[in-house]
Phosphoribosyl-ATP pyrophosphatase (Sorlinia euscelidii), 156 residues
Amino acid sequence: MALSSGKSTRTASGVKKSRTKKASGKKKVASALLEIEKGQRDRAGDDITAAVLDRLHETVLSRRGTDPSLSHSARLLSRGRKKIAQKFGEEAVECLIEAVAGSANELVSESADVLYHLIVLWVDAGIAPQEIWRELQRREAMSGIAEKASRGEKPA
């Protein structure tokens, strides 16, 4: 499964470069993400919930051990955790670049790439999304400062 926007090109170093104009849409992105988080509607007006991540996990899980020539997920999984982590890191950097550039559409696209590659990493590590959801739920019950202190971290 290759997730891409089709509105970017790769430079010689392999980093995607956006061809879209800078958008002053930080508030729009934050608002759209908040609506999606609440299971409301996305910018296109479609009903959206985080259950799509569980379905994506099931799809990637079903590709484990299958023919790498037939599935991007199978190919990534066959190449091992080091390659999966490398791809995750590349996508995370591209996501950060789009966040700084202020391109809402590209940020959405790159965020989807990050989540996809994170899920591939979870599958490779044998981690179910419910483990992550449980940890997020545990953290939700306390302030960020208290949560960091519980892990021995100093708040930023």
In short: The domain at 23-125 is CATH 1.10.287.1080 (Helix Hairpins).
